[in-house]
Structures are given as structure tokens and as C-alpha cells.
Amino acid sequence: MGSIGEEIKQKEFANEYSKLLINVMYTASWLNGLQSSIFKEHTLTPQQYNSLRILRGQYPEAASVNLLKDRMIDKMSNVSRIVDKLKAKDLVTRKPCKQDRRQVDVKITDKGLKLLKVIDEQMVDWEKNLHTISEKEAATTNALLDKWRS
Q1: DSSP alpha helices (H): ranges in 42-134?
Q2: What is the dihedral of CA 46, 51, 56, 62, to 10 degrees?
Q3: What is the pLDDT of residue 1?
Q4: Which of 28, 55, 72, 118 is 20 to 30 A off residue 20, Cα-Cα?
Q5: Whole-model pTM above 0.90?
Q6: Which of 72, 70, 18, 10 is nearest to 45 (CA)?
Q7: What whole-number distance in Å separates Cα of residue 58 and Cα of residue 106?
Q8: Fold of 44-149
Q9: 127/133 Cα distance (integer angstroms)
């Protein structure tokens, strides 16, 4: 993989900010494609995987659909549909909330936890793709991206 200009066959950019925006979007798409190959093996989408990770973080408590929506990486996700798909795979349970009948409680199942454990092991190997930069460079990049979003 080369520079962003080489990758998208563009010699000039309006300015460095425009180049950065395109570079971040292109890199996010590239990373998503690499990760998707792992998820596809387990018949999951990136959004389903993200939902399972959030639910594991709440475990053993349940989470509301709104909590999932708030914590999703992809804010355009249809969380209700994602939960329905995960429920059909027996990876989550979905029950009406006892305190608020308008709310639904979603909880990861043992099968969901076991699946995440398998994926976690694969992700350790996959994340080695990111080791082309040092840990210090990763920390600097994280800080810059956080600053950019603030």
C-alpha cells in the first residue's frame, strides 16, 4: 500500500486538510475490509460484531436498544434490525424491560460470549497488521484523531 495519492490515482489535493479527510476515509474503508473477512467467517457484519462487543461490556447486565445505538461506531446502524439478526443466531436475548415497558432489554448469550472469545483470538493476529507504526506513533495518531473530532 502506498501514499493516498498513489492509491486513488490523484496527484493533487485542494489542501492538506482535504487530503487528510480523504486519507482517513480511505484508510477506514481499508481497515473495515480487512476486518470484514474475519466477521464474514462467522456470518457477522461489523455492526453485529460491534453490538456484541458492547453487550459483552454490559454483561451480566442487559442493555437497552438506545444504549446500543449511543455506543455504536456506525451511528447510522439500524440497531433493532441488528438485534433481531443476532437473536435469530441465538447470540442475544431480547425481552421487555420490567421497569419500562416501552424499552427492550438485550443481553448477550453464552453462545455470543463464546463466539467473541474466538474472534478475539483472531483479532490479536489481525491487529499485527497495525504494527507497521510504533506504539508511540499509534498514541500520537489517537490523540490527533481525538483532537480533530473535538
Answers
A1: 46-58, 65-71, 79-88, 110-126
A2: -170
A3: 66
A4: 72
A5: no
A6: 72
A7: 10
A8: Arc Repressor Mutant, subunit A (1.10.10)
A9: 12
